[in-house]
Specification:
mainly alpha; three-stranded antiparallel β-sheet; 15 helices
């Protein structure tokens, strides 16, 4: 065997040896790799087992926590339900309170709307009165000549005068003898003020009365009601009607504002006459409101009317000046006004009725007032005594006053203040009133005296023709309530403490 063969043979042995060695190494590596795989699988198994155990433990922990959370949620839900129920109760209370407030505000709105409607209605009426007054005056101016005053012309004049009566600018009211007297008093007051002097109460009182009469003309004949005449008290709702007004003696001027009261004469269907006392004011500012703009109510939840407004003396003098200028202008048509008023009266009561009634009035005055103890007293005409007015020298003035008194029956009503003074004298002797004054520790005011008389009635003594003054059974409760207010036992209904609870909730 050559070297080459030997080398090849030897090299082959070596290759075989190396092959075997490589195979063995491969087998060892495979074994080792298999061991590693088994170890990895074992570790993976162990890891999976541990992970599964941890997962299961986590799931158990989560489940336990979920149970706790559910329990807490259930407790929270219960609390929420309780809170919701409480909130519903509070909401119901709030809604009830708001409902009560809305009811009061609605009532106030309705009342305000009604008042506004009435105010606008009165404005419309006053405009109509003024238009008819101007139309009457314009019509009179077209009848300067006798030939122009045809029957048709007279009919139209009477129609316009009839439509103009009742308003502030009524031509008939402008020629009232009292208006003339008060116009003279106004001139005296203005003259005194221009000279730096104070006008006397005697001078100013008739001026105020003209203002009261002119600004309240529409209320003459109005029936007393709780809504329209709250100061009439227990007289309201019993058929009493206003027949006259006059400023009471308690008026005064404070800081340029006129304050005081007005005596109002009223009469019922039976012919009885009495007086109540109300604030002297230029009007009311609508509805009484609190600081938040809500209506102030009484103990029954009814909205209260606003506090009456005083009269600025400057406004009073301006109003009086304007009115007296108008009256002076209309005075030039006095004869025509009386002629139309006479025709209207006779048309309703029979031809010659006014003349007959006027003559009766004159005869009664001359026989009762112009003689005896009353002769020296002041007559209805300013500056004349009864005796002087009854004298032939002033017969035309007496005749004119008599005519006006027949044409305007309210002139024949007893003066409110004189009637009020008589009522006060009677009330001051009533045991119920004297007891009240003793409990009060002072005398009653003029207004309180006149309020008190509204609870007393004149009744016939059974079996006789005599009458006595008593508080009727149906008026006793109202009397006790009024007494308690005067004594201060009942709180002022305008006080917030006296509001119904539902209206005081915030």
């Amino acid at each position: 065997m050559s070297f080459a063969d030997g080398f090849k043979s030897g090299f082959g042995l070596i290759g075989d040896v190396q092959d075997r060695a490589l195979n063995n190494k491969r087998l060892d590596e495979q074994k080792r790799q298999g061991d590693l795989d088994r170890d990895m699988q074992t570790q993976r198994y162990n890891l999976d087992r541990d992970a599964t155990a941890l997962y299961r433990k986590g799931q158990n922990d989560i489940a336990e926590r979920r149970v706790g959370v559910d329990e807490k949620n259930a407790a929270t839900a219960e609390i929420n339900a309780t809170n919701k129920a409480t909130q519903l109760d509070l909401d119901e209370t709030r809604i009830n309170a708001q409902s009560g407030l809305y009811d009061a505000q609605s009532a106030n709105l309705t009342q305000t709307t009604e008042k506004e409607t009435e105010r606008l209605s009165n404005i419309k009426k006053e405009e109509d009165f003024a238009l008819n007054s101007q139309a009457f005056i314009d019509h009179i101016a077209t009848g300067k000549s006798a030939t122009a005053r045809t029957p048709e012309w007279n009919t139209r004049a009477d129609e316009l005068l009839d439509k103009a009566n009742g308003g502030i600018l009524s031509p008939f009211a402008a020629v009232d003898p009292d208006t003339k007297n008060n116009g003279d008093a106004f001139i005296e007051a203005m003259t005194a003020m221009q000279n730096g002097e104070d006008a006397s109460r005697e001078t100013l009182t008739p001026i105020i009365n003209t203002f009261v009469r002119a600004s309240n003309m529409r209320q003459i004949g109005a029936e007393l009601t709780e809504q329209n005449t709250p100061k009439a008290g227990n007289l309201n709702g019993k058929g009493w009607k206003i027949i006259g007004k006059e400023v009471a003696p308690d008026w005064q001027v404070v800081d340029g504002v006129l304050t005081g009261t007005v005596d109002v004469t009223v009469q019922n269907a039976a012919g009885a006459i009495t007086v109540y006392n109300a604030p002297l004011s230029s009007g009311r500012s609508g509805q009484e409101l609190d600081d938040k703009g809500n209506p102030v109510v009484d103990k029954d939840g009814k909205p209260l009317p606003a506090v009456p407004l005083g009269i600025a003396t400057e406004d009073l003098m301006k109003a009086a000046s304007g009115y007296f200028k108008y009256a002076q202008y209309v005075g030039q048509f006095e004869d025509e006004i009386y002629q139309s008023a006479t025709r209207l009266y006779d048309a309703r009561n029979g031809t010659g009725s006014l003349e007959a009634k006027t003559n009766d009035y004159i005869t009664n005055f001359q026989g009762k007032y112009a003689v005896g103890t009353m002769a020296g007293e002041a007559s209805p005409i300013r500056g004349l005594t009864n005796a002087e007015l009854g004298h032939p020298e002033h017969f035309n003035k007496l005749e004119k006053y008599a005519q006006y008194s027949v044409l305007d029956p309210s002139k024949n009503a007893i003066k409110p203040t004189r009637a009020g003074d008589k009522i006060i004298r009677g009330m001051s002797k009533r045991p119920e009133v004297t007891d009240l004054q003793d409990d009060l520790g002072r005398g009653l005011t003029r207004q309180e005296f006149l309020q008190a008389q509204g609870y007393f009635s004149e009744v016939k003594v059974r079996g006789t023709d005599k009458k006595k003054v008593v508080i009727k059974r149906e008026d006793k409760k109202a009397w006790e309530q009024w007494k308690n207010k005067v004594l201060g036992i009942v709180k002022d209904p305008r006080s917030p403490a006296n509001l119904p609870p539902r209206l005081r909730m915030q």
